[in-house]
Amino acid sequence: MDRPPRDDPPSEASERSSVDLSPPSANNEPIADDTSLSGPSWPRYLAIALLCLVGLVLAVSFTVVMAAGDDLTFTADPFDPETEPSEAATAQQVIDLEQRAENNPAGVADAFDTAAEEGVYDEPASAHPDELVRIADDDDRYEYAVYGGEYYEWESAVGENSDHVLIELEPTTAQEVVDSVAVPYEEASSEAQSAVDGEEATGFEISEKIVDDDGTYYAVSMANPGVVIVQLFVAPITAVLQSVGIAFLVVGGWLLRKAVGGVSRPLSVKSIAGLAGVAGAATVGVGVLSSSFSAFSLASLPAIAAAVVTLSFVGLFARTRQYGPLAGVLFAVPIATITLAGVSHALFGGVGTGLFGGVLTLFALVGAGLFGWPLIAYGYWFSSTPDPT
């Protein structure tokens, strides 16, 4: 009798071959690994584009400010020392007491009146305002004074612990003062001569404030003093912003390159360290090629740009909850940046310059951090380590 065929149990191999290889359903979709070459989503492209755009704006800010700002321009105006003593006070050796009395307590003018009338003012601390102490304490700077249309020889002193103020005013002549403080035209700098000749005179400073041109006296002054504010305050701020912008461009450009290649989260410890070096080198190149090249642009700004890039470490370590390395970055990077900048400054101008450069870099680093903090978010969002579970 024929036996019916036996149904053998499916083998392990056949079970493996029958596994459903179709994509998972929407209700059971596994978490995607963003480190794959799956291609970034449009929000990531938008974030990269925004980083590059902001970086470009910040990177050119310093160049735009310096190009828009005028050079310091000086003019020279002739004056008669006999009738225009205030013009003689343009000289660094001459103090204009009427100008100093303005916007100060009445006791300052009273002290000047006493010194002019009696030749000396010598009173205890209780008799004069503190502003008078600061004026009298600057004795080494001034030799002459003008007050009430008259010229005086100036002497002043402040007692120990500012317990009294001494001011001596001895009348003198206008001719004696201008002969002492004026520089002959032939001995003046080319910039001062250009100003006297009515030509354009530019530069950072002209030391000759009174020029004697064959008996005609000229008072040299800045025609556009507002430029000083730009050069002393606005320019350094935009220079720091330029470093932040370069850091943004370096990180954003690299993220864009990886995104085009299909990598969603390319940032890692190794890549961030490399990008920091690139940002520092790029800042050196920009500084060397800039017409406003300075020791600060070569000594401090590259270190600041590299430090801004390392803010991405904070986001990466925060995402992976590696709080030890995160604290290490927050502690070590500022110290390394300030030390590197200080040593670079010292190579330019000695130990004193190095210490000053380190302090300057500290303040610049704080400002750079206030503007560069978005890289913390980019370090979190674009790091290649998966989210902690």
Total number of beta strands: 10
Strand content: 5-15%
Figure out the total of helices: 16
What would you report as the Rg, rounded to the nearest angstrom? 35 Å
Can you tell me the residue ranges where pLDDT is under 50 for at least 5 consecutive residues?
10-38
Q: Shape, please?
A: elongated
Decide which structural class fits the backbone. alpha+beta
In whole angstroms, how far apart are the ends?
A: 64 Å
Return the average pLDDT rounded to an integer: 80
Number of domains: 2
Residue share in helices? 40-55%
User: What does the main sheet amount to?
Assistant: 5 strands, mixed
Kindly report the spatial arrangement of strands forming the biggest sheet. 7-9-10-1-8
Order of helices and strands: HHEHEHHEHEEEHEHEEEHHHHHHHH
